[in-house]
Amino acid sequence: MEKRSLFGKIFGNKKDTAMRLNRFELLSGNNVNYTPWSGDIFDSDIVRSAIRPKANAVGKLSPKHIRGYGEDMSINPDPRIREILQRPNQYMSMQDFLMKMTFQREIYHNAFAYVKRNPLGQVEEIYPIPYSQVELLECQNEMFAKFRFRAGKTMTVPYEDLIHLRKDFNNNDVFGDSGMNSLNNLMEVINTTDQGIIKAIKNSNVIRWLLKYNQALRPEDIKKNTKDFVDNYLSLESETVGAAATDAKADVIQVEPKDYVPNAVISKEHKERLYSYFGVNENIVQNKYDEDEWIAFYESEVEPILIQLSNAFTKAFFSKREIGYGNRIVFEANNLAYASMKTKLELVQFVDRGIMTPNEVRQILNLGPIVGGDVPVRRLDTAPVEDDGKGVDNNGDGSTGEDGETN
Prior knowledge:
alpha+beta
């Protein structure tokens, strides 16, 4: 039976390119190799809890294929593209895909996905790439990316066949800047603090009493006398627990442990520094946010990723000509789903003015769609405005509506 692997599923029988490739020259003069930080920061519970709200929010984005503009606009006109936007490959849903890409973007500052195409050049599947290193190469004015994987294999693909999400895109011309230098010291402090607490707990179980005998005893006698002391005076079942007496043979000395416990205020400051690095706060992490806090988090942290995804998917799916005809991938976020019930109920005025459809509001209220609910509606006493500032005559009798101005 032929042995299959995920590597073979993604790249097929294609061997790593034998083309003559040169190192790609960057304007900044930086290294064309990028190695993700192997600091294992994802093993930290604080880091994971700081990234998770953003990954969960991005995973709820709803991608749509839009074609055309205005009255000629159509939504999800191509069943093939609609299917990929729901399930980018056979191993994961779009929610899984978006969450994985977000985790990699936040940890490594560069997230890559390979766009697998059919012989006609159409998108067939999309796979996140768990790379260990990537190198930029060039051939005939085309840029390639050579990926090295943890299993030791390599694959070189055109950069045009990649979805690339970057964070802190500054010094390098192509890659987002690594967070290694920014996080190294902070993570070391947090890890050292955790180790200090663990050692303090362990030290609480060390020797608390010392029996100093004033005469030479055999080891077995010392052990027996010590056991007797514990059983008689330190055991909860002892009749004299809490009180002890000794004779001249031994002195009883209490050992006071002096364990260092990190200051709680300082520990909290370190955690807040890490939260600030990932753009969250304690309320967001612990799901205690109110409406305003969530909207601020969405606009500052989630929406930039939404725009990145829309641009990257549009480039991957369509040629410049197709984009010119209005083809684009749009990621929508129903951020008002986190609004209070009062705010949700006020959305009814958006329906009767044609701003939102009934089904869009029902989705915010966690209700299922209704037949005909995707058609915008408008109150009869409203109408489009002509250039002269007067309403359009919708009634045929010289008026614009119930409250409109008559001619």
